[in-house]
Amino acid sequence: MLIITCIKQVPDTTQVKIDAVTGTLIREGVPSIINPFDAHALEESLRLKDEYGFKVVAISMGPPSAEMTLRRALALGADDVILLSDRAFGGADTLATSMLLSEAIKRLSVHEEIAMVICGKQTIDGDTAQVGPGIATRLKYTQLTSVDRIENIDIQSRRITVRCKFEGRYEILESSLPAMIAVLREINRPRYPTVPMRMMSQEAVIKTWDNKIMRLNENTVGLKGSATAVKRIFSPDRAMGQILGGDEISNPDDAARMLIDKLVSKNLLSLQ
Amino acid sequence: MSAQIPFFTTLFAVAAVFFLWSCYLRFSLVLLGKPDDRFSNFSRRFANMLLYAFGQKRVVTRSYPFGLNHSVFFWCFLILLIANTEFLLHGLFPGYISLSHLPEGLYFALALVFDIVSFVALLAVVIALSRRWFYPPEYIDARSVDAFVILGLVATLMLAFFGMHGSEIALGSEGAAAFMPVSNFVGSFILAGAPVNMLVAMVTVFFWIHAVTLLLFLDYLPYSKHMHILTAIPNCFFRSIEKINTQLPEEFKKGNSYGVGQVDQFRWKDLFDSMSCTECGRCSDNCPATLTGKALNPRLLIHDIKMNLLHNGKLLKSGRAPDLPLIGGLKEGSIADDVLWACTTCGACMEVCPVFIEHVPKIVYMRRHQVEMKAKFPEELLTLFDNMENRSNPWGIIPAERGRWTSETVAPLFEKDKTEFLFFVGCAGAFDTRNKRNTLAITRILDKGGVSWGALGKDEQCCGDSLRRLGNEFVFAQMAKQNVKAFKDMGVRKVITQCPHCYNTLKNDYRQFGGELEVLHYTELALQLVESGKLAFKNKAELGKVVFHDSCYLGRYNSIYKTPRELIELATGHSPLEMERAFERSFCCGAGGGRMWMEESAGNRVNLERVKEALKRQPDTICVCCPYCVTMMEDGLMDLKVSDQVKVLELSEIIETALK
């Protein structure tokens, strides 16, 4: 049985700045990383592989350079990786992205039964948290979101129990398989690749599926298949920060006291 | 005695074969190790061997007065080796070989020497026994059976020597009697008046006691820590002749295994080291991890390697898999994970080891196995590794921030073919608010001295020191190659560093990656500037009593001890106060070897130990020469709640004050 894990290569957003004039992201020279949430999704898939013997396939939609992310997945222990890459796929919003990913998952399900699709809760560049649920809807899988622990899997009866973390409460949910699981970062601590696995992953040929293979109507993928468009990106104006005390205070106790006074005076903190 | 010859010959033959067989078994295990070039530079090696093995330079030190007793043993042993060889040969061929066949003058001289040396050896045994019995030092297993067996055997040998010669003198059959004061005393006073047939019997009895003890001693050697009698001298010959014992690079090739996870993955010299250990305990007596209650004890680490080799040797020789794990087991001969991660790589163990055992590289090679083959390491290192790989600094701060030292100051950039020195700021100097103060102080020193310098700003990458010491050689090698290439592309030939870890890495480690740089620590350059008259101290920095803390990577790793002290004297008008442990025996701040990025939950904190030692000198200022030391010492003062009374200053800050 397969676990499909969806990962995305994202710019290291803490290093991204917005061009004040054109209002676009300055991505030049900004290193790409694996979306941190997806790193946890991959880790969870690998842990389930270690425990239950699933086969893990990592898929990613993106430009050819996104294969770096998939090599990382291989180095960490994914059994197979697929890069969905074609000019026609570019500029996709969450609708078009989930459409393409679910079509790819359908292709994979022809050969082997799929137990679950595991995604990160959201990406750090788009922050929508829509792609996972989008995939679930298209594939008619149960969607289990904000999962911070997988409690149990019963392969025989195809059931899964998870714990979801919501504001102020946990929910324990049980569902049939296949299911789409969107995980939080608390779910695990990602592993580190060994050197032999890294070297294997660097030499691996990354399987790429373009639209010649996918054969999808070009109006349903990429920019053309997107229902939304970015009109403008801007940083909201923020008041200047203030340094309290500065070099005058060397004692942490005094610094803490000063900060507390300040917060109390602004009604941000109450002392009881 | 002639009737005894066949019996003696048989006994000798059995003992000799057993000894040689034992040696073969042990030394063939050493050959299980991987190749290591330890033969080049013969003359330097030979000189080392004379100085350290025959001169016992590291055995006899101020801190180890009993080392003198050992050197007495050593020299007695060498001299008596001649006497005992004669004894054995005489026993085998009594009619042909005997000292008495030598010219009279030589015979008498040797008789005198052997007699006195035997007595001195006996005294040394008494001293050693008394010490072990009445004042056992804490750092060794002083009352081990092994120690008493050997001391007992040595004492028996000497007593038998005097018994035999004394009896012969009493019988009047010893020609050199007048030249054997101790034996003569035994023969003329103690045995005076003893019946002749008793004396004749005593000669025989003592001969046999001497013979059997000598052969027992020989056969026991390979099975005890006294194996070092055979291995210590060659181990001094095979020592790493580079002062800086960094780690060797890995060859990253498909199918290779990395680091040491199995005893035969060590190099042969590492295995020879384990056989050379005398268990004297100097290493653990100086180890910051051992002394603060961590799992690591370098003496036991070497012992465990030896035990592992002895246990698995047979299996490995026949090509089978070992059944006692080298890392992770709990039994003797297996090294627990937390032992490996406790090392600060400060090198104190290697600095004091009388036989030049190389502890730190072994620990790093085993860490490599854990990181590179198993991906098993303390979890706080995961963040460090990711930060290093993604952002080339340990904190994971955005690289664009690297060149921004303050809100007003940006690093001036190094210009190809124009700037003379690259100022390699280092991660701490570029990102850590406290340590940026040193960076700025250094820039002012450079400017005042009229130095042509520039930095790489946001393009500077971490040197990778912590990664290498933590065993993440794969990522370190990538960073080292990138840096070496960047230096070449930029035309960088001369580098000034602030951090001793950058200094050591750029200067020593990068040579393995083709980096040929002239690397100066800023203190070296500052002193040069003073000496050439380009930098003058106009004022004296009024800092009260200043105590100096040696940084391991400047001191032990690169032998820079005097330079910072001279600068302190120039800047303050006084030479600094010294701690109990200073210079080569300095005690680590606790941050080296990647420990800076790890939790310290076991035992006491190393930095507190060091700060308390500094406070014993009642200083007003603790002067350090490394950004890690700044952090560790300041944290220590804060923990002890004395940070408002005692200040930590980086040497650059002191110099800057005196330049104003």
Describe the structure.
The complex is a heterodimer of chains A (272) and B (660). Chain A is α/β, with parallel strands linked by helices and 272 residues long. Chain A contains 7 helices and 13 strands. Chain A is 29% helix and 26% strand. In chain A, the strands form 3 sheets. In chain A, strands 11-10-9-12-8-1-6-7-13 form a 9-stranded mixed sheet, with helices on both faces. In chain A, helix 2 links the parallel strand 6 (55-61) and strand 7 (80-84). Chain A is globular and about 70 Å long. The mean pLDDT of chain A is 89. In chain B, strand 3 (494-497), helix 21 and strand 4 form a beta-alpha-beta unit. In chain B, helix 5 packs across helix 6 (181-190) and helix 5 runs antiparallel to helix 7 (196-220). The mean pLDDT of chain B is 89. In chain B, the strands form 2 sheets. In chain B, strands 2-1-3-4 form a 4-stranded parallel sheet. Chain B has a 4-stranded parallel sheet with strand order 6-5-7-8. The relative contact order of chain B is 0.08. The A-B interface holds A 12, 14-15, 31, 33, 189-196, 198-200, 203, 250-252 and B 252, 254, 256-258, 371-375, 377, 379, 382, 385, 390-391, 398-400, 474, 638, 643-644.
What structural class do the secondary elements of chain B suggest?
Answer: mainly alpha
Summed over residues and divided by their number, the pLDDT of chain B gives a mean of: 89
- Count the DSSP helices of chain B: 26
CATH superfamily of the largest domain in chain A: HUPs
Q: What does the average pLDDT of chain A come to?
A: 89
Give the tally of β-strands of chain A: 13
Largest sheet of chain B, order of strands side by side?
A: 2-1-3-4
CATH class of the largest domain in chain A: Alpha Beta
Characterize the largest beta sheet of chain A: strand count, sense, and whether it forms a barrel. Answer: 9 strands, mixed
> What fraction of the residues of chain B are assigned to beta strands by DSSP?
under 5%
Radius of gyration of chain B: 30 Å
**What does the largest sheet of chain B look like?**
4 strands, parallel
- The number of domains of chain A is 2
